[in-house]
Design goal:
The structure holds 2 protein chains of 2 kinds.
Chain A: H1 2-23, E1 30-34, H2 41-57, E2 60-64, H3 72-84, E3 90-92, H4 101-109, E4 114-117, E5 128-131, H5 134-149, E6 153-159, H6 165-181, E7 185-192, H7 197-210, E8 214-219, H8 222-234, E9 240-244, H9 248-256, E10 261-265, H10 267-282, E11 290-292, E12 295-299, H11 306-309
Parallel strand pairs in A: 1-2, 1-3, 3-4, 4-5, 5-11, 6-7, 6-8, 8-9, 9-10
Antiparallel strand pairs in A: 10-12
Helix pairs in contact in A: 2-10, 5-6, 7-8
Chain B: H1 5-10, H2 16-25, H3 27-49, H4 56-81, H5 89-106, H6 111-134, H7 140-159, E1 164-165, H8 174-177, H9 180-184, H10 192-210, H11 212-229, H12 234-260, E2 262-263, H13 271-281, H14 293-312, H15 317-341
Helix pairs in contact in B: 3-14, 4-10, 4-11, 4-12, 4-13, 4-14, 5-6, 5-7, 5-12, 6-7, 6-12, 10-11, 11-12, 13-14, 14-15
């Protein structure tokens, strides 16, 4: 019995350690952000931006997301826990644009403004959506690729997946631009690596093996791009590699010249503008339907430029 | 510790006081009481820590978030009591959800066909695991690991890696989201998913404690060789247990698909670990032979109360995971202490 009691006390003490910090700021404006992910560096950068905005605008911000981008139901649990905290506003990056609608309606009924970020929701409930124009960004990647390989030759693409909005938009943005503007460039392969570094590496190696004349490859997110770099390095092949997003490995590859350059979104800006839009909505200000958070091309020449360096993350 | 349940069943009918005495001093009951007390302590703690915790809406959210894990944990309880393990429950759930989508959305069948199909395919997959384990003598860990991957792949293939939406079956979301209880008692809008969880739990409890299948489930986990020597067809009963577990996963598949109004083919991996954690917190031993459905349900609630409460308290997500891990270890440790004493 003694041991049991002790265990219980231990558990309670453990909880209490975390409890006090949560109790204090009851009167502040509280805005939780429910994101699509958490561990990935990109989401950590979004979080950083959101926290910065929280500091600047004097609101309390929290940031949560499921472990993998497949866990639609876990994300919904997070959203409903966030709603239970009676927040003033909510930021939400939907994993499945339809599944969360009942909860969003509840938020609407409770007059809690919802700001969508990163990807949209199939509904007019969100007051605005803070996101990158992924199609246009991938189009820019295609332009850069064409320029670097002399507007002719074979090119392949490694994408993270064919189901998510960003996967579809980046793939189509790249392919459409090639098709419409560069008739002499041939896309020989489009493969999906789940954003997994190792899987994308294996895919790249098999593409390189199958296409000895390949001139360039585009990796559509951080994991895919690293995979392309690894695959080309392991096969000792010199091709033009264009990546997407940042991260330490990708930045190193650009500095060393293995990667020609990459598109970066502005994840810090996505987080910042989401919180900013929520605060504006609370003040009753009018917001545009979509807030373009911007994207940039960066390569060896401008990677240290303060404007670029500010949106890159390690 | 040896199994208490078969012994109880075998005993002659004792008097009422004798039953009460035996129940109160039964170690299995004590474990349940302890688990239940921990659950209450957790709830009390979170209620004090945050005003937003003990709200009707939040209680409903907790109930709803327990439904899928609870049903999966019930499926696991049967297998774990036999001394086996089932790693495929998460992706099997997804596979059943996808099959419901195939019948309802691809083929436009009526809703009850989709429901039967999900449970049927769950049973078939469980049967397959059972045959692999009982007849081909593949260790349960490996057989169900293989099934886990196989089913994950099949779900992606069948669905074309895209979510299947149930837009053509407007009544489908009602399985999980509507509230039959709320219809009769408007003050308690408890979603149907929770009702289904409790119905499955009651049915599973009856099967486990009052039927031959239940008795053999415990016996297999206590001493499989002795059961075999006493002339029981061990392979047959093992296959039955895995098939039953699979069919229950089919119900979980319906619950999650109905809640999301879609079958998400990439979902499912990792859910088996949550289910196993709930079973273990509930006092079922991974070495087999003991366990209760009530314990498992309490275990599932402890996990969702814990996660919900930490979220409500705005504990950073990294720490939520740490605390969950600590609680699982503590729960199992108290169980070991109890075993050491009895």
């Amino acid at each position: 019995m003694v041991k049991r009691t002790r265990t219980l006390i231990m558990a309670l003490a453990l909880g209490a350690t975390f409890g006090f910090s949560a109790n204090a700021p009851a009167q502040e404006t509280y805005i939780p952000l429910i994101s699509k992910g958490f561990q990935h560096q990109f989401w950590q950068a979004v979080k950083q931006g959101a926290e910065q905005a929280g500091k600047d605008l004097k609101v309390k911000v929290s940031f949560e997301g499921p472990e993998t981008e497949a866990m639609v139901d876990k994300q919904i649990d997070m959203l409903s826990a966030a709603l239970a905290k009676n927040p003033k506003a909510i930021g939400f990056a939907a994993l499945d644009s339809k599944a969360a609608i009942p909860l969003l309606k509840k938020a609407q009924a409770a007059k809690i403004p919802v700001v969508a970020f990163d990807s949209g929701v199939d509904s007019d409930i969100p007051v605005t959506t803070a996101t990158t124009d992924n199609k246009a960004a991938a189009g820019l990647a295609a332009d850069k690729m064409a320029e670097l390989i002399g507007k002719a030759g074979e090119v392949a693409v490694v994408v993270h997946d064919q189901t998510s909005r960003t996967g579809i938009d980046r793939r189509d943005g790249f392919l459409d631009r090639m098709k419409s503007k560069y008739p002499n460039i041939k896309i020989v392969s489009v493969q999906y690596g789940g954003g997994d570094h190792l899987k994308s590496t294996e895919i790249t190696k098999s593409i390189l093996q199958a296409n000895p004349n390949l001139k360039g490859m585009f990796g559509a997110n951080e994991g895919s791009a690293i995979g392309v770099v690894n695959g080309a390095t392991e096969m000792k092949r010199k091709i033009v590699i264009i990546g997407y997003d940042s991260g330490k490995q990708q930045k190193d590859a650009i500095r060393s010249g293995v990667m020609a350059g990459a598109i970066t979104q502005n994840p810090v800006g996505i987080g910042y503008k989401t919180v900013e839009a929520a605060v504006k909505a609370l003040k009753g200000e009018k917001l545009p339907k979509v807030i373009d958070t911007g994207f940039y091309w960066y390569d060896k020449s401008n990677i240290a430029d303060p404007k670029i360096a500010a949106v890159l993350y390690d | 510790m040896s199994s208490t349940q078969p012994a109880e069943l075998a005993a002659e009918r004792p008097g009422a006081i004798e039953i009460l005495k035996r129940t109160l001093f039964n170690p299995a009951t004590r474990q349940k009481l302890l688990a239940f007390a921990s659950l209450l302590a957790l709830m009390l703690f979170f209620s004090v820590a945050s005003n937003n915790f003990l709200q009707a809406d939040n209680m409903v959210s907790i109930l709803q978030s327990t439904a899928v894990n609870g049903v999966l944990a019930i499926a696991c309880t049967f297998v774990i009591i036999t001394g086996g393990i089932d790693l495929s429950v998460g992706t099997l759930m997804t596979f059943c959800a996808v099959m419901a989508g195939v019948f309802l959305t691809y083929w436009g069948m009526p809703i009850y066909v989709g429901i039967v199909a999900a449970i049927f395919f769950g049973g078939v997959c469980g049967f397959t695991s059972g045959v692999l384990i009982a007849k081909l003598k593949i260790p349960p860990f490996i057989a169900t690991l293989g099934m886990m991957m196989l089913l994950k792949g099949l779900s992606l293939v069948i669905s074309g890696t895209k979510p299947i939406y149930f837009n053509d079956t407007p009544e489908f979301p009602a399985i999980s989201q509507d509230s039959l209880i709320g219809y009769f008692i408007p003050a308690a809008p408890i979603p149907n998913a929770v009702l289904i969880l409790f119905l499955v739990a009651i049915a599973a409890g009856i099967v486990l404690n009052k039927t031959l299948l239940g008795r053999y489930t415990f016996a297999l986990g206590s001493n499989e060789e002795a059961v075999r020597l006493s002339g029981v067809n061990v392979d047959f009963w093992k296959i039955v247990v895995y098939s039953l577990s699979g069919a229950i996963c089919g119900i979980a598949g319906l619950l999650i698909a109905s809640r999301l109004n879609s079958a998400q083919p990439a979902l499912g991996q990792g859910y088996e670990l949550d289910a196993i954690a709930a079973v273990v917190i509930g006092g079922t031993s991974l070495s087999g032979g003991t366990g209760t459905i009530l314990g498992t349900i309490i275990g599932a609630f402890i996990m969702s109360v814990l996660i919900n409460g930490l979220r409500i308290m705005s504990v950073a997500q990294e720490w939520q995971t740490v605390v969950t891990g600590v609680i699982i270890i503590l729960a199992v440790y108290t169980d070991i202490l109890r075993r050491g004493k009895s």
